[in-house]
Design a protein that fits this description.
alpha/beta, two-stranded parallel ribbon, 9 helices, binds nicotinamide-adenine-dinucleotide
Length: 311
């Protein structure tokens, strides 16, 4: 049995990852400030510490040790990062710096970070590979890029670190109340309420959607495999999906032939389109995504209707 610290695990991805770790027989301590997360998402048998990383002191962890720190906490919306850039900075940059320093001082030598495809901005070459330039268009993306650089520094100081750049992660448990993060969850939330689906920006924009269970499988393989130490990976399905295709597939999964849609102005810093090259992670950890978008959206709609992890 191992003991993991998972940050942000009252949120979507961290909670599903923690539930899996508990199911696999591990001990999990969770830190979350509940800014968007919910206590109802925290899996049973996890220790929960409520604090704001980047603002509150980590001395609360005194006396504990962990086999690894999985850092997923952070304000998760590019759009919202324009509303409070200082808070966004604390939640990505200061939180990461504080945790890295704590790991070094407390002999925790494994650190995995949830970064984002947002660091690429609008890449020139698609699918975008890890070698592409970093061109942040939001405070959120700049914070992720800065956090990545602190992680690279601590790698040289003796920590075994891995940076995972998530693309669009979706699935059951995604926060349907946060209308500023997550295309699939935002559009599904409108459909569930019977409201007109409001789309901010063009239907021709495109993204790369990865189902939550595929992400968790990849994360655990990354943890288990020392080849990933010191590496940065795209974590994505490697498939281009336009907003229009997403809406059509979501509508099918929802069981409606048509749905009222209203197009609004785009959001500040929105990336027009990108999808990722996942060859590096597939090769290094022997992983391939198992759930395609149609299957994933069906599972999401079905589980959401059953009330799993929602509300
Ligand atoms: N969902 C995606 O498609 C996606 C894509 C790229 C990157 N990411 C990153 O993955 C991570 C998890 O995303 P998610 O979709 O689960 O988002 P989420 O908003 O559901 O979860 C983030 C959690 O972090 C907590 N949090 C925020 N700031 C905090 C702080 N300063 N201290 C402690 N807790 C704090 C929130 O309360 C929330 O529970 C985030 O870092 C996000 O930026 C997500």
């Amino acid at each position: 049995m191992k003991h993991f610290l998972v940050t942000g695990a009252a949120g979507f991805i961290g909670s599903v990852l923690s539930a899996r770790l508990v199911r696999d027989g591990h001990q999990v301590t969770i830190i979350d400030d509940l800014s968007t997360g919910k206590t109802g998402n925290i899996p049973d048998r996890c220790e929960f510490i409520q604090m704001e990383l980047g603002a509150d002191d980590l001395k609360v962890l005194h006396g504990r040790t962990f086999d690894a720190v999985f850092h997923l906490a952070g304000q998760s919306s590019g759009e919202a990062s324009f509303l409070d850039p200082e808070k966004d900075f604390r939640s990505h940059v200061t939180s990461t710096f504080d945790l890295l320093k704590w790991c070094k001082e407390n002999s925790v030598d494994r650190f995995i970070y949830a970064s984002s495809m947002s660091v690429y901005g609008d890449p020139v070459t698609l699918p975008v590979s890890e070698k592409a330039d970093i061109q942040p268009k939001t405070y959120y993306a700049a914070g992720k890029a800065a956090a990545e650089n602190y992680i690279r520094l601590f790698q040289t100081l003796g920590l075994n670190t891995t940076i995972l750049r998530f693309f669009n992660v979706y699935g059951p448990g995604q926060n349907l109340d946060n209308m500023r993060q997550g295309m699939a969850s935002i559009y599904l939330a409108y459909m569930l309420k019977g409201d007109t689906v409001q789309i901010k920006g063009s239907k021709d924009r495109f993204r790369d959607f990865l189902y939550i269970d595929d992400l968790v499988d990849a994360w655990l393989k990354v943890y288990e495999n020392p080849v990933t130490w010191g590496q940065t990976y795209n974590l994505c399905a490697g498939e281009k999906t336009t907003v229009e295709t997403l809406i059509n597939q979501l509508r099918d999964a929802f069981g409606e032939a048509a749905y009222p849609i209203e197009y609004l102005e785009g959001t500040p810093g929105d990336q027009f389109g990108l999808y990722g090259d996942n060859a590096k992670i597939c090769k290094d950890i022997g992983w391939t995504p198992q759930v395609n978008l149609q299957q994933g959206l069906r599972k999401m709609v079905e589980r959401t209707r059953q009330g799993a992890n929602i509300g």
